[in-house]
Design a protein that fits this description.
Largest sheet of chain A: 2 strands, antiparallel
Strand order of the largest sheet of chain A: 1-2
Number of helices of chain B: 7
CATH superfamily of one domain in chain B: NADH-ubiquinone/plastoquinone oxidoreductase chain 6, subunit NuoJ
Order of helices and strands of chain A: HHEEHHHHHHHHHHHHHHHHHHHHHHHH
Helix content of chain B: over 70%
CATH topology of one domain in chain B: Four Helix Bundle (Hemerythrin (Met), subunit A)
Helix content of chain A: over 70%
Distance between the termini of chain B: 50 Å
Largest interface: B-C, 87 and 71 residues
CATH class of one domain in chain B: Mainly Alpha
Oligomer: heterotrimer
Chains: A mainly alpha, B mainly alpha, C mainly alpha
Strand content of chain A: under 5%
CATH architecture of one domain in chain B: Up-down Bundle
Number of strands of chain A: 2
Largest sheet of chain B: none
Number of strands of chain B: 0
Number of helices of chain A: 26
Structural class of chain A: mainly alpha
Distance between the termini of chain A: 81 Å
Order of helices and strands of chain B: HHHHHHH
């Protein structure tokens, strides 16, 4: 079993290696097949391992070591994997969604010149992500972390010949790097204080070594949070994700919706003991989650590019996951991760079908009326949008989002404000997701269809749509009959939500459920009125405050401009001021000094015997002086 | 005897100065011979009659003669003397004079304080010969090799293709 | 026979040596340079004889004999080189026979 677990992570790396070495000589079909096969095999093995884990129950927790990686000073790190309920869920979801997206991409990217390179990077990414979630020590996790960051850079800038793709990739890398640096400092602190980087040991030792709510724990928690913020694109490090949509659509689906951006969520969930010990940090997590989900909901409402709508939507949904982590609903966050992976990947892939069909057209206002021409895309997008909006009872999103909203109300660490923000966010979510649907698929067609989706692409869409509906049924709330195998499964890793007595009555849950259901339907209806029937849209669009607000939301509440003022301009000014680099001057000066020495010394080569004789006499004088002065 | 030493020394130095600052080659050569003879006298005062005689016979008698022959063969003439005058303007003496003065000062400072009278006595040719052919036998052989090498080299290098032009002056 | 103080003799040797060195450092005519070298050799010989007198050993004089030999060989070769130079460059100017630039 441990061998199979290792193969789950190694097979995609092997695929990447083969594709890298053979990329010149493999025909496209073979490269696509290899890329999909390696991830597919990884998924199959993941299912086998998961099955075995489920059979064994609590004793199925698996720790396997491949070899000792480094043994330096007091640092002992191994190449080891750890399998428990959390990693099983992550592993299965990641490998499954990745496999479906690979199938989709094998058809949708077929006309690309760099087809082989694409699958090499994608495989490398899947391998890194699986390493990240299965690692048993923080250093290996960091390896996977950096690996996915690298692949994100490579894949965002996949069409590197266009300069702005490269800039978007750099932006993503640099912004996440800030988070990575914070995380690295956090790892250093953990090592120096607790003496180990093995995750289970850290989680066991932390309560013994650190005082609860002390400075040490809070600092470490905040630093890890910094890393998570960068990778998961939360405020204030969220500016890279909308621009990362410059990459191909399968990339956006895999990396920037389903997997990489959830790495931060995984990190916090995995290190939940540390966060529980630092209530201040956990509160910050919740606040960041709440702020982010609210802020990006507004930004998503006014975007023109369909992928940017989905990008802001991703930021918002991960904000929900952070909110859940912040109020102590650990399994709720993972539940939402699972459902979100399905419906967000689905939304991206069906958007990709639309984009390809209209010849790379991203602008929503140039789409329209595609309902009849692209039926599969329409219906799957509808299912995805419904799940995203948490359409009551029939979608997976409803159950996972409800779990989060209930926890934000009833948890001791939550409260009324968190619930209110989350619920209003749900309203916004429904509004913007159906806005995109109506603008893209309804109304009159504005652009001609160039290409229809292939069979594999449609297959991926349908499968994801299926799971976007049923995946929620494993975590149903109290009022609907407490069928919660998911929560039960996760309880082997996570503690339950700490409930506040005064807010957590049975009736309260039912009432909140009703409110969120009503709001999501209201959001859909408002979107229908505003965007399909265009009832007040003309009036608002013409008015001055309307236009100002639109501009503000469109620019993502001005974060890019703020960072430009705060960081980019001063940095460029300093670089400009130092353009004749004083450090460079020092080293260039060494060269200049050598040159002058050469000129000086070559002047002594006169070719005159008399001068040479004088030199000899001079040498004799020097030696004599030394002898005399002794 | 001591007085002879100082007198000969003085003559030697004066002759040396005249050689070094001379304009006319032949005059300088004659001055050099004077210096060699003065040095021979100095050797004599220091109780080394054998090398004194050898100095006169070999150095002044053979080596300087060779010098004179070759210089006469060059036949440098009056323009050479003019040229020398130009080359020897005081500007060229400055730096070498300073260096030489410093060197001399170093020597004098080292040597001045030590007053050491030698044991008076003459070391005659018999002692020198015995030392030469027992302790320094290898040196003798090497010296002969050196002379042979010098002979061969001089023969080969001096073999000019075509003869020197004669001055028709 | 004589009791010349050793350091006086050595000072004489030093003076002659410096004189010869001065000549080598200053003169442009190759013949004069050779003559200055002779002066230096003689200075060394004086020093050796003074040492021999001090220690009452013949070794100093033996060395002087060797100096004589060396001087002879050197003059022979040196003058033949001088003839060659005169033949090629038509001048005995030391500066002219240099091919170096700079």
């Amino acid at each position: 079993m441990s061998i199979l677990l290792w193969l789950v992570t190694i097979l995609p790396f092997l695929g990447a290696l083969l594709l890298a070495l053979l990329s010149g000589t493999l025909p496209k079909k073979a490269a696509g097949a290899l890329g999909c096969a390696s991830v597919g095999a990884s998924w199959v093995l993941a299912m086998v391992v998961a099955g075995s884990f489920l059979q064994h129950g609590p004793s199925g927790v698996l720790n396997t070591t491949l070899y000792p990686w480094m043994n330096v000073g007091g640092l002992r790190v191994t190449m080891g994997l750890h399998l428990d309920a959390l990693s099983v869920v992550m592993m299965v979801v990641i490998s499954f969604v990745a496999f479906l997206i690979h199938l989709y991409a094998s058809q949708s990217m077929y006309d690309e010149d760099d087809y082989n390179r694409f699958f090499c990077y994608m495989n490398l990414f899947v391998g890194s992500m699986l390493t990240l979630v299965l690692a048993d020590n923080l250093l290996l996790l960091y390896l996977g972390w950096e690996g996915v960051g690298l692949c994100s850079y490579l894949l965002i800038g996949f069409w590197y010949r266009d300069r702005k793709n490269g800039c978007a990739a750099q932006k993503a890398f640099i912004v996440t790097r800030i988070g990575d640096a914070a995380m690295a400092v956090g790892l250093f602190l953990i090592f120096t204080q607790l003496g180990t980087l093995d995750i289970q040991s850290v989680l066991a030792a932390a309560p013994k070594v650190w005082p609860v709510a002390g400075a040490a724990v809070t600092t470490v928690a905040l630093l890890l949070l910094g890393g998570a913020i960068g990778k998961s694109a939360q405020v204030p490090l969220q500016t890279w994700l909308p621009d990362a949509m410059a990459g191909p659509t399968p990339v956006s689906a895999l990396i920037h919706a389903a997997t990489m951006v959830t790495a931060g969520v995984y990190l916090i969930a995995r290190m939940h003991v540390i966060f529980t010990m630092a209530p201040a940090a956990q509160l910050v997590v919740a606040i960041i989650g709440a702020v982010t989900l609210f802020y990006s909901g507004f930004s998503a409402l006014v975007q023109r590019d369909i992928k940017r709508v989905l990008a802001y939507s991703t930021i918002s949904q991960i904000g929900y996951m952070f909110l859940a982590l912040g109020v102590g609903a650990w399994s709720g966050a993972i539940f939402h991760f699972m459902t979100h992976a399905f419906f967000k990947a689905l939304l991206f892939l069906s958007a990709g079908v639309v984009i390809d069909a209209l010849h790379r057209e991203h602008d929503l206002f140039k789409m329209g009326g595609l309902r009849r021409r692209l039926p599969v895309a329409f219906w799957t997008f509808l299912v995805g949008a419904a799940s995203l909006s948490a359409l009551p009872l029939v979608t997976a999103g409803f159950y996972s989002k409800d779990a989060i909203l209930w926890a934000s109300w009833s948890s001791r660490l939550g409260g009324g404000w968190f619930w209110l923000v989350g619920t209003l966010g749900a309203l916004l979510t429904a509004a913007y997701s159906f806005r995109a649907l109506f603008l893209a698929f309804c109304g009159t067609q504005k652009t001609e269809i160039a290409k229809l989706a292939g069979g594999l692409m449609n297959l991926a869409l349908v499968v994801l749509a299926f799971f976007s509906v049923v995946a929620g049924f494993v975590g149903m709330p109290e009022v609907l009959g407490r069928f919660d195998p998911f929560g039960h499964f996760m309880s082997s890793v996570f503690p339950r939500v700490p409930l506040a007595a005064d807010r957590s009555s049975q009736g309260a849950e039912g009432k909140l459920l009703l409110i969120s259901a009503v709001l999501s339907l209201l959001g859909i209806y408002l979107a229908y009125l505003y965007f399909k029937e265009r009832r007040w849209s003309e009036a608002v669009a013409q008015s001055a405050p309307g236009r100002a607000v639109h501009r503000f939301f469109f620019a993502g509440w001005g974060f890019d401009q703020l960072y430009d003022w705060l960081f980019v301009r001063p940095f460029k000014a300093v670089a400009f001021g130092n353009r004749s680099d004083f450090i460079d001057k020092f080293f260039a000066g060494l060269g200049e000094a050598a040159r002058y020495a050469n000129i000086g010394l070559s002047a002594t080569q006169t070719g005159r015997l008399r001068n040479y004789a004088a030199g000899i006499v001079l040498g004799a004088i020097v030696v004599g002086a030394i002898a005399l002065l002794r | 005897m001591n007085a002879l030493f100082y007198v000969s020394g003085g003559i030697g130095i004066i002759a040396g100065v005249m050689v070094v600052t001379g304009k006319n080659v032949m005059h300088a050569l004659i001055n050099l011979v004077v210096l060699l003879l003065a040095i021979a006298s100095v050797f004599f005062c220091l109780g080394a009659p054998f090398v004194a005689v050898l100095q006169i016979v070999i150095y002044a008698g053979a080596i300087m003669v060779l010098f004179v022959f070759v210089v006469m063969m060059l036949n440098l003439g009056r323009e050479a003397e003019e040229q020398e005058r130009n080359w020897l303007s005081s500007v060229f003496w400055r730096v070498p004079a300073v260096l030489a003065a410093v060197l001399l000062a170093q020597f004098v400072v080292t040597l001045a304080g030590r007053e050491a009278a030698p044991m008076a006595g003459v070391i005659g040719p018999k002692a020198v010969g015995r030392s030469l052919y027992t302790d320094y036998l290898i040196g003798v052989e090497l010296a002969s090799l050196l002379l042979l090498a010098g002979l061969v080299a001089a023969f080969r290098l001096g073999f000019l293709p075509g003869r020197l032009e004669r001055d028709d002056e | 026979m004589s009791s010349v103080p050793t350091n006086h003799a050595l000072i004489l040797a030093a003076a002659l040596f410096v004189l010869g060195a001065l000549g080598v450092m200053t003169r442009r005519n190759l013949v004069f340079v050779l003559m200055s070298v002779e002066i230096m050799l003689n200075a060394a010989a004086v020093a050796f004889v003074a040492a021999a007198a001090k220690w009452r050993q013949p070794d100093g004089q033996v060395i002087v004999i060797f100096i004589l030999v060396v001087a002879a060989a050197e003059v022979a070769v040196g003058l033949s080189l001088l003839l060659r130079i005169y033949h090629n460059w038509k001048s005995v100017d030391v500066d002219e026979v240099s091919l170096m630039r700079g």
